[in-house]
Amino acid sequence: MHPALADHINPGCVDLVDRLMNCHADNKWAKFFGKCNALSEALNKCLGAEFEVRRKKQLIEARARRARIEARWAEQREDDKQQERFERLQREREKAAGDV
């Protein structure tokens, strides 16, 4: 069985989907004995290819998103370090002013 076959999700396989649906409609009993198996296998290959294309695109997008997040984290860590230095210097100045 195939997942939900939507034209906008699987645009390259629309022809195969239509042909398989027509085969099932035209061969109500023969479909159970393998009449439409060749079309079903072709559709499986087409859907697999489209899935792989989507997967690669999503992987590229995810890596770019991750790189942006990593850059923000590095920026935040640097800001935190600067804030710590500033607070430490303030404490040292306060301590030095209190010792005098």
List the helices and strands and how they pair.
Blueprint (H helix, E strand, L loop, with lengths): L13 H13 L10 H63 L1
Q: Pick out the low-confidence regions.
A: none
Give the percentage of residues in beta strands: under 5%
Structural class: mainly alpha
Shape verdict: rod-shaped
> What string, H for helix and E for strand, traces the elements in order?
HH
The major β-sheet equals: none
Q: What is the terminal-to-terminal distance?
A: 84 Å
**Percent in helix:** over 70%
Number of distinct beta strands: 0
Tally of contiguous helical segments: 2
Radius of gyration: 31 Å
What is the gist of this entry?
By secondary structure, the chain is mostly helical. The chain has helices spanning 14-26, 37-99.
Notable features of this structure?
100 residues, mainly alpha, 2 helices, 0% strand, rod-shaped
